[in-house]
Structures are given as structure tokens and as C-alpha cells.
Amino acid sequence: MRIILLGPPGAGKGTQAKILTEAYGIPQLSTGDILRSAIAQQTPMGLAAKEIMDRGDLVPDEVVNGIVSERLDADDCKPGFILDGFPRTIPQAEALDEMLEEKGMKLDGVVEITADPDVLVERIVNRARETAAASGGAARADDNVDVVRNRLNVYRELTEPLVGYYRDKGLVKSVDGMQSVEEVTAAIRRALHN
Ligand code: AMP
Asked: What does the longest C-alpha to C-alpha distance in the chain come to?
């Protein structure tokens, strides 16, 4: 099973990807997680990406395309994978098409998790507040509202067009992300097996 999870920040892509990796026995490929780990390890790529990510902007396509291409060659991706947070732009989607063709792989589906933008800001800000509280209350969640809004704008402008891109290929399955985690998982599984 080779799938892409598409949806705005806070829609639950990461949560669902983690559940689906268990269900299907395939890895989650999260470019956000890989970049965060590069930042934690202070690699040159991490150092270059940090400022961009802190603003809620996108790191350059070449960087993430390289990460994904390398990751797809790993043995654990042979039975399939769940792409979470990639592609995020049309050029990234085109690069992915080329990579998959070269590697002799084919996508099974693109799951679009839909969500109400107003609820998303609240969800992400609450998540930041909980994380801050858990780590000693250092960060103020309010500081993040502008960044969250920027991430949602970036999604609308650069990533949402991917729904049309993949719809034209007959790959899109839309799922309502405003249900419980369990209901969203069940809906995704039904959509993938249709
Ligand atoms: P995420 O964890 O998927 O929300 O990603 C967190 C941040 O990492 C994003 O706001 C971007 O700055 C960066 N990022 C993750 N994936 C990509 C991607 N495919 N293209 C560009 N930037 C990305």
C-alpha cells in the first residue's frame, strides 16, 4: 500500500499515519519529523531549515525531494509507505511522480483529510499550550497563533492545489477529519479498500 495523506496542519495526518503504519505494517514518511530530527541533531540541513520552519514557511523543494527520494530506497519501504506532509507543492508532486516511475513504484491512493480552518487554529494552539505546559511552561501558545495562520495560508495557496492534481489522476479519496480519531481511521480504511 503506497499512500499520501493530504490535509491542512492540525487535521490529524500525523495521528492517522501512526495508526495506519500499525494497521498495514508500512512506515510513515514524515518530512516534518525528518526535518525536526535534523534540527535536533544540528546537521547542516537542520540548521538551514530551522528558521524557515519557525516562520511556518516551506523549506525548498530540492531539500525535501532529496529526503524523500533517499528514504524511498530503504528496505522498509518495499511493502509500501505512508507519505505524511509530502508532497506540499505541485513541483514536489511532479518530482514524486518522477521518483516513483524511476523506482518502479505506483501510488494506490491519496487520502485528503478535510477540516474546518477555524477549528484547526484552536487545535494547534491548544496542542502548543499542552506541549509548553508539559515542558515546564516556557513557551506562550499565543506566540504561535501568527505562525499557525501562516501555515494554514501556505497550505491553502501551495498545497491545496494538489487535491486537483491527484483528482485528475483518479487517486483522491476525501475523508471528514472533524470526526473522532477512530472514526477518521475507519473512514480512511473504507476509502482505501473501495
Ligand atoms: P509538518 O510536521 O508536516 O507540519 O511540517 C512542519 C514544517 O516542516 C512545515 O511547516 C515546513 O516548514 C517543513 N516541511 C515539512 N514537510 C515539508 C515539505 N514537503 N515541503 C516543504 N517544507 C516542509
From this structure: 48
